[in-house]
Amino acid sequence: MTAHLDDGRRYVEGVWDILDQVVEHEAEALDRAGGIMCLFGTGHSHLLAAEGHSCACGLALVAPIVKHRRAY
């Protein structure tokens, strides 16, 4: 059981490291955008944009750019 916890801990630490790098490298661009991160994708990759918004419970600083289709 400990090995799984260690794997999970390493994964989460890796994700935080990547997010820290994004913030460090994109801080100026985020400031220019008013702190709003706009996400988009095409095809199935649009799910990443929706995920960033939905899983953050509609966090105001994440704005998904999605095209809604009407079913006829």
Outline:
With 72 residues, the protein is mainly alpha-helical. The protein is built from two helices and two strands; from the N terminus they run αβαβ.
Can you walk me through this structure?
- The protein is mostly helical and 72 residues long.
- The protein is flat, with a radius of gyration of 16 Å.
- It has two helices and two strands.
- It is 56% helix and 11% strand.
- The mean pLDDT is 75.
- The relative contact order is 0.11.
- A two-stranded parallel sheet has the order 1-2.
- It has two domains: 1-32; 36-72, no CATH class.
How many domains? 2
Derived structural class: mainly alpha
Q: How many strand elements?
A: 2
Strand order of the largest sheet: 1-2
Strand content: 5-15%
Helix coverage percent of residues? 55-70%
Order of helices and strands: HEHE
Q: What keywords describe this structure?
A:
72 residues, two-stranded parallel sheet, 2 helices, mainly alpha, 2 domains
List the helices and strands and how they pair.
Layout: H1 2-32, E1 37-40, H2 46-54, E2 62-65
Parallel strand pairs: 1-2
